[in-house]
Amino acid sequence: MPRKIIDLTHILHEHVPTWTGSCGFLPAIKLDYDQRCRVQNMKMHAGVGTHIDSPAHFIPGAQEVHQLSLENLIAPLIVIDVSRGVGSNGDYRISPNDIEHFEQQCGNIKKGDLVVFNTGWHNRWGNADQYRNCDANGKMHFPAVSRDAARLLVDRDVVGIGIDTLSPDCSSIDFPVHEVLLGAGKYIVENVTNLDEVAPTGFTGYILPLKAETLVEAPVRFVAIQHT
């Protein structure tokens, strides 16, 4: 029986939702077919679309994207679905109780696992205003992760986390989840999609970022492959 392969990556285009709301991706044609072949260049933020934050994003001297090991970027995938609890609540914060409830149902999270949260927010990706969900003061509201939940996952010694929103911190000015996870040498993947198609366990996550020096964030192709 063929293994199930799920692409967890959004397609990049110039209207994708971004942290600031400005255009994060702009391809341009330098040469075209009348000159034998099409040649393009790209302008984009490093942290646009489905992308990875390395520890060096917040921690000076820590690992940059190209220094992350393949052993940590290819890892058993744990998908925790909190979408029913989230609903349309842009102020939902994933708690240790959410994680512990998952473990009661599906087994304990293990050292080396990659934990990704399905909040259901990825279904808003096609509408940048709904995805960013700004109030009258311009503050974004979307599901995020609590500091205590981040600490629990560090205690479990996961390799990293993912979420189907712009950030596991939403617009918290002190970025506690980034500080906790990146400070512990873990990574974060943001703007994940298609999580409804992945079972809670039984898949391996493959994260393949652009490999370039000095990058602290980078776009990724994130794929889930079902175990045989």
Task: Characterize the structure shown.
With 228 residues, the chain is α/β, with parallel strands linked by helices. It has one domain: Glucose Oxidase, domain 1, CATH 3.50.30.50. It is 18% helix and 27% strand. The protein is built from 6 helices and 12 strands. It has helices at 70-73, 83-86, 96-106, 128-132, 147-156, 176-183, and strands spanning 5-7, 25-31, 39-44, 51-53, 74-81, 93-94, 114-118, 144-145, 160-163, 187-190, 203-209, 217-226. Strands 4-10-9-7-5-11-12 form a 7-stranded mixed beta barrel. A two-stranded antiparallel ribbon has the order 2-3. Helix 3 (96-106) packs across helix 5 and helix 5 packs parallel to helix 6. It is globular, with a radius of gyration of 18 Å. It starts with a strand and ends with a strand.
Strand content: 25-35%
Low-confidence stretches: none
CATH-defined architecture? 3-Layer(bba) Sandwich
Largest sheet: 7 strands, mixed, barrel
Q: What is the CATH class designation?
A: Alpha Beta
Domain module tally: 1
- Quick one: how many beta strands? 12
* Widest β-sheet, arrangement of strands: 4-10-9-7-5-11-12
Q: Percent helix among the residues? A: 10-25%
Strand pairing plus helix content: what structural class? alpha/beta
Number of helices: 6
* Head-to-tail CA distance between termini: 9 Å
Provide the succession of SSEs.
EEEEHEHEHEHEHEHEEE
